[in-house]
Amino acid sequence: MRSTHRVTLIPGDGIGPEIVDATVRVLEASGAQLRFEECQAGFGGQSRFGHPVPDETVNSLHRNRIGIKGPLLVDRGGQPVVLNGGARYATANAALRGVCAAFANVRPVRSFAGIRGRYADLTIDLVIVREVSEGIYVGREIEIEPDHSAEATLVTTRAASERIARFAFELARRDSRKRVCAVHKANVLGRTDGLFLRSFYDVASEFPDIKAEDQMIDAAAALMVLNPARFDVIVAPNQYGDILSDLAAAIAGGLGVGPGGNFGNEISLFEACHGAAPDIAGRGIANPLALVLSGAMMLDKLGEEVAARRVRNGVEKFLRRGEGLTPDIGGNGTTRQAADRIVALTRDEE
Ligand code: NAD
Q: Where is the signal peptide (predicted)?
């Protein structure tokens, strides 16, 4: 008898509920036994429970240790999110990562047959491992003189830098990848990015089978545009990883197909690379693929590799056949039509 996995499910804001609904249908068609526990966060949490990250959601994640979420709208310049217990975060997304004690955000980026990326002739297949527990996004921003000067604090520690480097090398070894490239600006930020880089090379010596290299962020951005196929695994501090992963996803096939996952030592939370897309929310045309592929990453983490493969095969067939594609990837289908097709192909009915 196969065990049932309990999963925290956060519909999120904007297009979140539409793509979460599609993803749940595909995951249920994969054959894995899943029980979803629906919880709120973001504007949904605020309106239903008076908090963008309600205690119910925190408790569910602690209990289930695995979750999948739709994107959350972020209130620009909004109040920090303070969790029960006092921890403060810049946004509800950052607070959820904090709840999971997440330190790694993983974004695989690949080109698919059937989606015209920017480079029709290149096969892109890389993974970006972004440090998410520190860096410049720790939320320590102060106004020195209102509207005239402000400062933000960039935090880098050896412990977190070694932890993310080790995570990236272990991922490379597990997925039979050959090279890990650290991205930094150590020539200017010698104390912070310099520490990140030194920690990276110290850990690299434990992985002699994998080539370690580094690039400065400006050069890495240029190389990503000129020849994205040259990258294998990239490990980056918080902000560079954030920017590079959208750049890479956009080059490979658009934001609508970029999956992701946040990993702590005990809790993992999966989410698409893109945001809440308020410009198309409620119109039924959001591309569900990024979240569906995030769901496949979640199945891997649950040890449901066969189900994960079924989902990925379903997505690949869907893209190759090209019927029901959403407008962002060149079709005129709806989220529901795309989901219907992927569900059928995941069940291998066609
Ligand atoms: P976005 O990713 O939401 O949208 C950028 C563009 O890509 C838009 O034109 C949108 O329509 C399109 N797009 C994104 N996802 C798509 C999909 N699945 N299918 C089709 N088209 C898609 O970025 P944004 O506009 O900068 O941000 C909107 C909101 O989302 C903001 O409040 C932002 O803070 C938030 N956001 C949340 C997360 C998260 O929850 N992890 C991540 C990024 C942004």
A: none
Q: What is the pTM of this model?
A: 0.94
271 Cα: distance to centroid of ligand 1 (angstroms): 12
Is the minimum distance from the CB of 349 to ligand 1 under 6 angstroms?
no
Task: Report whether residue 289 contacts ligand 1, using a CB cutoff of 6 Å.
Answer: no
**Backbone torsions φ then ψ of 148, nearest 5 degrees:** -120, -40
pLDDT digits (tens, 9 = 90+) for 285-311: 999 999 999 999 999 999 999 999 999
**Backbone dihedral region of 86: left (phi > 0), alpha (psi from -120 to 50 degrees) or beta?**
left
Domains with residue ranges and CATH for the chain? 1-103+266-350 (3.40.718.10), 118-252 (3.40.718.10)
Residue 274 in contact with ligand 1 by CB distance below 6 A: yes
Per-residue pLDDT tens for 40-78?
999 989 999 999 999 999 999 999 999 999 999 987 667
Buried b (16+ CB within 10 A) or exposed e, 333-349: bbbbbbbebbbebbeee
Residue nearest to atom 40 of ligand 1 (CA): 71
Ligand 1 atom, smallest distance to 69 CA: 40
ipTM: 0.98
